[in-house]
Amino acid sequence: MSLPDVTIQPFDGPSVCLFCASSDGADPAYLQSARDFGAAAAAAGWRLVYGGGGVGLMGASARAAHEAGGRVIGIMPAFLRSRERLFDDVETIVVTSMHERKQLMYDQSDAFVVAPGGIGTLEEIVELLSWKRLDLHHKPVVFLNINGFWNGFFELIRHSVAEGMTPASFLQAWTVADTVEDAMAQLAASGDAPQVRHDLR
Predict the structure, then answer these.
(1) Cα dist. 171→128, 177, 185 in Å?
(2) For 38-54, what is each residue's pLDDT tens digit?
(3) What is the pLDDT of residue 1?
(4) What is the pairing mode between strands 111-114 and 15-19?
(5) Which backbone phi and psi does 72 adopt, to 5 degrees?
(6) End-to-end Cα separation, the chain, in angstroms
(7) pTM for this one?
(8) Sign, CA torsion 9/116/112/185
């Protein structure tokens, strides 16, 4: 996919993309974990790459990272500007489509964290994992599994493996963290993780 020319401020450190909800969610722990992750990423020197919105878990994480002195870049398609309300206090790139948004988020990130979210978050992570299934990338993916939020998704993938639709090695395509502290520890150790091929056809 060819992307429009954009100007992005240089950054020498690592960047982590956070996929998460643009809503607050029913459990207050989801929103708090987003705040905690943003602050922790900033403290550890990671630039936060996120969907650009100022609402929900997205906005909470970006604000916390920004308030902690971290670098933040938001990427949002133009048609969502009124729905997800840009967080203008940080660097923000406006693109024309969801496809451009996801591609630029991927290109700007060294690792990915998946916090609780809805169908949009699910669509983003399924595409990212499908690329990993095809060995198109080996970037680390960490699910922030607050209160077991992602357990049903993991069960679906295990079912796909059991039915012979997905190779068992694919279960190694991500790691799971129950807390923000664990997620940060996994990000710190991600450079030492072995690369596993999943497409052996």
Answers:
(1) 14, 15, 20
(2) 999 999 999 999 999 88
(3) 46
(4) parallel
(5) -135, 135
(6) 25
(7) 0.92
(8) positive
